[in-house]
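Folds abound. A case:
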Amino acid sequence: MKLPKGALVAVVDGEKLALFENTGQQEVQLSARPTPTIAERASGAAGRISSEANPDNDTQAEDGFAMGVAEVLNKWVLNNKVDHLMVIAAPKTLGQLRKGWHKETQAKLVGEIAKDLTGHSTDQIAAAIEKA
């Protein structure tokens, strides 16, 4: 996958967020960006049903974290801090993120990869983007 220069890459699971910026022209080259504090939420978005019929506390915490990440990314998009967004997330987390996207954030998405790559090296993440 071609990733625009300057694109923000968010790598997310139910507990962690890592942010990178693509600094490469022809190939993906990722530079780490500071990770913001994500507001802890007791569960997913208000008025939304959690991802399971009877979620346990861990599931609610993971869903709440995903919604917190979506809020931060939405805020950055709405404040014109993000032009292109690539999201790599564990499949369940990606589903929760999608529920929280603002329509402007959806418009800035240049790609999604449903895979848990948190804890992987920058090179492994870049390789996954190029294969997508």
